[in-house]
Amino acid sequence: MSKTFSWFSIFRLGLVQMALGSIIVLTTSTLNRLMIVEGALPAVIPGLLVSFHYGIQITRPAWGFFSDTGKTRTKWILVGMSTLSAGGILATLGTLLIQSNFLLGIITSIVAYGLIGLGVGAAGTSLLAYLAIATKPERRAAAASLTWLMMIFGIAVTAGIVGNLIEPYSNFRVLKVISSVCVLALLVTILAV
After folding, report:
1. Alpha helices in the chain (DSSP H)
2. pTM
3. HSE on the CB side for 173, CA within 13 Å?
4. 176 contacts: CB under 8 Å, gap ≥ 6
């Protein structure tokens, strides 16, 4: 690949990492808390769901292969973020369904966390592979640090804002806020790539 990324391009791709982190924090902290506090579930259930989404990420080498051979990393980043966003919205629905229909809520949540794992694997792996091949070798360490710091920033900011926005708690409010974050993260990704 002859094109090398400028610092602006590296920052632009860091926005994708930031968007990815903003959805992940909702599924690994906000929804977990809602399952335990509002749904009165034992902590092992959200723990297993989060473990499942990490387990699904064993598919990362396949996503790397697809993005390497397809020469269209942008497509895989967009497919991954679309899948991740859909999984985030579905996970919210699953969390809310658990309160009224446990079995349907658990099934919905399992599917959702599977989509989250696939989405993170596809988007995250393709993004980092793209960054690695299009960044000058002397900039790679700094570029990786910048994008990871942006992801941490996305996690921290989203957790604080969403925590405030879902109060006073209602199912509709939670669904509206989390769905908005997922859609916004996808829009940021589309604009960034």
Report:
1. 7-25, 31-37, 44-56, 60-70, 73-98, 102-134, 140-165, 171-192
2. 0.92
3. 10
4. none
